[in-house]
Amino acid sequence: MIKNSMKLLFWWSVLSVFLGAIFIFTALQTFTGENTKVQIQQITGMNEHNAYVTNAIIRKSAHVLMFGLLSIIIYVAIRRQSIWLAWICTTLMAGVDEWHQSYIPGRSALVEDVLLDSLAALIFLRIIVYIRRR
Question: Rounded to the nearest 10 degrees, how much is the dihedral formed by the CA atoms of 127, 75, 104, 112?
């Protein structure tokens, strides 16, 4: 009983830290699309177009990874009760994240990012269920 409580506390703590990290990174102007594109250009010497494409790939990959992992953390934190509840919670957090970004200078809120995050969460959760059932 105590062991299960400790596991639950651990995963809720991980979830809290992860959500805090997303909130902080979203709030930092260092991670705006324009800033990261300029950093890519400076580091690699790429022209504007190639840096833009590379930046987009990196940023969208980060969305997929972060919200895919978030969905798994939520799934474990709710004791693997429902992938659908984990997916809904992740999608809501993606919406809150984009809403938060709309208040940060140099950032923008995109419905497309919420959809990408939601799809990533669903794919990650389906993979976890598939692996667990094997």
Answer: 40
Tell me the C-alpha distance between 47 and 4, whole Å: 53
Q: Other C-beta atoms within 10 Å of 55: how many?
A: 20
Per-residue pLDDT tens digits for 84-132: 999 999 999 999 999 999 998 888 899 999 999 999 999 999 999 999 8
SS3 66: helix
Q: What is the DSSP string of the chain?
A: -HHHHHHHHHHHHHHHHHHHHHHHHHH-GGGSHHHHHHHHHHHH---HHHHHHHHHHHHHHHHHHHHHHHHHHHHHHTTT--HHHHHHHHHHHHHHHHHHHTTSTT----HHHHHHHHHHHHHHHHHHHHHHH-
